[in-house]
Model the fold of this input.
Amino acid sequence: MNICRFNGGRIGVVLGDVVADITDRLPVTGHDEPALRIAGLTVARRQALVDAAPRIAATGLAFSSPVLRPGKVVAAPVNYRAHIDEMLASGQSHGHTITDIRQAGLFLKASSSVVGPSEGIAQRFLERRTDHEIELCAVIGRPAANVGASEALRYVAGYCLGLDITVRGPEDRSFRKSIDTYCVLGPWLVTSDAMPDPDAVDLTLTLNGTVRQQANTSDMVLGVAELIAFASRFYTLHPGDVLMTGTPAGVGPIRPGDVLLAQGSGLGSMSVRVRAADASAA
Done:
């Protein structure tokens, strides 16, 4: 099931070219994560909500991040070997030369950087190179601490696409990657029961219509389950936490006016516009 947030916080289920608006069928509190609440229901209960909900056309809806308030955004810095090679060859690593993810570890992006595709990317520091990075993201559904890889996927509520936008430079990764709007999540949350194998997802990113990144998550050094197990050894993962699993080769610079199209098999697609941070949203 594809669970979305749209048009200022309404909650829906995407059914092809229409959305079942279940907002009024599932009241939530200000501290709730609507997508996680729905994902945690039985399939029969979810279907009952959808059957009773009005339909609206998906075209023209403004999709927000499916996760409203992630406590943590955990990210993998070097999880595709081809991306490691390209960064070393490009000279953009700025001394960050650790090429083993088990040595590099994971890093945190500020949750304040999270936006949905309709909000777009407000680019700062236009004099510096800023890159696009498409990623598969796993959203945690229940607390996970010191879990083994064999059971790790049971803790996932669902999956979505992510864009990890990155200013290149010598500063710490978390600092350069935590700018407002530099974590785009969407277009919706695909419940884990609808994606049995997250390590077999095709990812494609186009920039202004030209393919820039294209890979399958089977190319990852550590798969999703291994990453969850790795992260949970260092801190408890809580419901709503987002795990960004790393980006493949093909990263490249963005500029205001660019349009990014991120696509993933089984995950849908999201079009994201880039604008200058001091300009009004287009």
Notes: The first helix runs from residue 34 to 39. The longest strand covers residues 156-164. Helices lie at 34-39, 43-51, 81-90, 101-104, 173-176, 224-232.
